[in-house]
Amino acid sequence: MLNFPGLILFAITAFFLVPPVLWAWRVTWMYLSIPDDPPSADDSLPSVTVILPLRGADPSLPHCLRGLLRQDYPHFRLRIVIDSPTDPAWGPTMEALAESDGSRVDARVECLERPFPTCSLKLSAQIQALSRLESDCEILALIDADSVPSPDWLRCLVSPFSDPRVGAVSGVRWFAPTTPTWGSLVRHLWNCGCQTQVHAFGIPWGGTMALRTELFRDPRWLGIWQHSLAEDTATANLLHQMGLAVCFRPALTIINHESVDLAQVRRFIGRQLINTRLDMARWPLLIGFNIGVTLSLVAAAGLTLAGLFGGHPACVVWFGGLLLFHFGGLLGALGVTERLIRDLAQQRGEQVPPMALPWGYFAATLLAIVLHGLAVADAIWARRVSWRGVEYALDGTQGLRLVEYRPYTSPDTSDASTQSLI
Fold first, then answer.
1. pTM: predicted TM-score of the whole model, two decimal places
2. Spatial distance between the Cα atoms of 126 and 90, rounded to a whole number of angstroms
3. What superfamily does domain 46-279 belong to in CATH?
4. What is the pLDDT of residue 359?
5. Helix residue spans in 58-119 (DSSP H)
6. For 302-342, how does the pLDDT look when each residue is reduced to its tens digit (9 = 90+)?
7. DSSP reduced 3-state for 410
8. Three-state DSSP class for 37?
9. CA 395 to chain centre
């Protein structure tokens, strides 16, 4: 049995290591209990405008556009805002629109005219499209170019708004890379762990998100978006203040098959955490919990080893058991959720590459923990962040600042056809 100080230390480490396991199984349960949407008559569906901001030609851009233009939705508007007249996204966009001649979609393409100096280029494009919304638009849907929507994507996205307590609907981002690089596997595992906190803290994902347009009558929305790096973390704040819920829909899980290397995944993780630091009011709570988890893992591992080699079996049983519960619970939830998501993808007719070998998951998990710890430190102290070839300064009291606008240029890589644009 542990002495009193040992019990106190165990209680502290358990406080940080138990909740992630419960949150992970909460996500798993969400996939085990996917609700069936009741059929809706076409004339009862709300008027929707979809906004797609583009900077660079993502490998999945043609598939994203074809998916949007083949939606099983009676009528909706598609507004595409491309970063510059020379952007590589123009070619795939115009080709996809030409293929869909006669589509019921009211599609328009425009160029970003005036980037705001105090927010990301993505948000500048979204705000430009928002400023030109038709007055009858009831729902605003946001999508990223690396999201490939299924034919029922839009119907599924707007269905939860029948509940007046729902302010936003969010899909789920999941990675299943065709090319299983170490960076891709680390990003996949990091994202799995991230999903538990995303759901616990109510942070929607901007890659597939819908909002009631009436929310933008509140002047705080565009004011905050004009001083943010990402629309999803900024939206989480406002919804929390207004007492509105985020509805996560597992049926809207978007599987990304692109690949990254370890250097890219570190930048990716770092930018996600910087997004949260800049735009989310509950950042201190989130970062404090993450630091607590990291320190608790180190403490539990150290005390388990000390007990093993120092002849203290109680430490081995208590702290070793806690580590086993933490990692076993997380990996168990991951395994079940992974299987459910792959079954869901197969039902939609998607091809998903095979899972990595167990030893690969173990090694990548350790890498993900290390890179996450480094990214947390980077997010706390970072003074600049780079996103798709443009740098933003983090000026403390002045917030975000676009350092210098430059049109996007395609990366000179041999595997550009599968490489994520970071």
1. 0.90
2. 17
3. Spore Coat Polysaccharide Biosynthesis Protein SpsA; Chain A (3.90.550.10)
4. 64
5. 61-69, 90-99
6. 989 888 887 788 888 889 999 999 989 998 998 899 999 99
7. coil
8. coil
9. 25
